[in-house]
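Everyone, study these two lines:
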Amino acid sequence: MQTFKLPPNFREHLLAWINTHETGILLDSNKQEEYNQQHSSWDILAAVGVKAILEVINGNFSIEQLQSFQSQNKGKWLFGYFSYDLKNKLESLTSNNYDGLKWPEVLLFQPEIIIGVRENRVEVYSENIDVETILRDIMNCHPLKDIRLSQTIQLQPRTSKQAYLLAVDIIKNHIKVGDIYELNYCQEFYAYPDQLEPAPLFNRLNKIAKAPFSAFLKRLDKTLLCASPERFLKKSGQQLISQPIKGTRRRGVNQLEDQLVKDELINNPKDRSENIMIVDLVRNDLAKNCIPGSVKVEELCQIYSFPTVHQMISTISGTLPPDTNSIQAVLDAFPMGSMTGAPKVMAMNLIERYEESKRGLYSGAVGYFDPKGDFDFNVVIRSLQYNSSEKYLSCSVGGAIVYESDPEQEYEECLTKMAAIQSALAANYSNT
């Protein structure tokens, strides 16, 4: 490992360099002074190349294989993701809905090169490649030119608005009869663009959203362009941290309207109820591994403001015993309660029944394990996914349904969450 002073426009050069590899990942916190980002370890963390890999297709694996792969690579960096459909190995569940993306259920890889940025320094890790050569190769990659779309890529709903509204009413009836308390109901929007360049498009989306858990993941013919504001789970030493989101509002057009929108969100009983239900679920998930009595709510229903939305976020933490297996700590909280509902297993059963698309990587988690066994994973939301072999572009959005939910308002919340993504797909896009 060697450190260097942060070169100008490093993020742009780094993304272009990652894009030249078959397998690569960029995790970007979009560090900004005006946005309070607690528990952040890196400004940027990236990796390319494959020295060892676990790639699970069609569910042909066991949880023991995950644990064995991490054990075999103990003391090494591992990057990748857990798709939502990993749930089928954790519970007696299935995923049989339409899948236009065809992501493997799990991807973990030990990279050849790791690049980290923090405190205006670049850290370059490699076991067998000269690190000065690596940095020079990165800076020799010209930043990607912005894409020029001849026409706006308009994402089409797989579920009609009428069908969505009806499903919300049906889900509310499940709540009424006591099957569930809350359910995260999602829908897919998609397109078949003739030509698409994912890396420049991610750059565009990243500039619009400036989200703290953004990720660009490239694996062969599949790409994730993620502008997530939500952390799923982080381990730092013996501390375990989760920061679920429930409650979203668009930013106001001026300072006065923005403050009114923010005040409405923080005082909205429905959004607070949604958030508190998930906080209770996360507390139970963390308690499976944490020392009894150590799980606590550090923040409850706090408002975090990002460039395009206000979010209601809570922070839950706990202390792990020294011998805790990192993979097990992730699996015992997976999938994240903010994307399922409560009770979790019944909610996931109903999700499969009423959603029309297989979630796949959407509402899964992307991140890394470091050599010490610490980790940090996001929640894959506010994302575009692209399968270049199928020329299939997908964006899924959703929200928590509780008994007080108004179907029309829930539909509008979906459109609010998709606004930044649809802006990035506009032919008349401008970053000015």
The first strand starts at residue 2 and ends at 5. The domain at 2-424 is CATH 3.60.120.10 (Anthranilate synthase).
